[in-house]
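Lecture 7 notes: from sequence to structure.
We start with the chain below.
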Amino acid sequence: QVQLVESGGGLVQAGGSLRLSCAGSGGLFSSIGMGWFRQAPGNQRTFVAAITWSGDSTFYDESVKGRFTISRDNTKNTVFLQLNSLKPEDTAVYYCAGSWRRTTAAAMGVESQSPAEYDYWGQGTQVTVSS
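Predicted structure tokens for the same chain:
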């Protein structure tokens, strides 16, 4: 079992930056693929980014490519999401998630963008971008 706790959300002006963290516990964090999703009010939870268990490959939704960066530090059981050049449409609750099935680059196809492929979820952290 893996427990995930996000932090780092907040209120920022358009064009600003935030760094989200997701701390994992349970001993198996370094073995699982990790993703970030977001959910705006009235919308479904959507894929933002994913990273393999080793951190050697990363994947992004087109809407955030070039602005957001996912990374991980397995020595600290933490995955990060750096958010740069933020836009009001990035406003959402951001969730980190872990997957036993989507761990390697070969396994992270379009299927890795589905919330159903993830086994563990954090409670979410709010990101609000003002215009």
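Points to note: The mean pLDDT is 95. The CA atoms of residues 75 and 101 lie 21 Å apart.
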